[in-house]
Amino acid sequence: MSGTDKAKNKVEDLGGKAKEAVGKATGDRDTENEGRGDQAKSSIKDAGEKVKDAFKK
Fold first, then answer.
1. How much is the pTM?
2. Dihedral angle at the C-alpha atoms of 11, 12, 17, 19, nearest 10 degrees?
């Protein structure tokens, strides 16, 4: 996995955590759920990159 991909995934994960926190603080369930979704997407992308790395070896 390239460093750029790792950084993008980490930024997306942190953004998702921030959205989730804002949603909880304001009582906005849509924002909270969107944040959780962003975190899930980041995790899936991370896993996909790890699989690609495993096949490169």
1. 0.82
2. 110
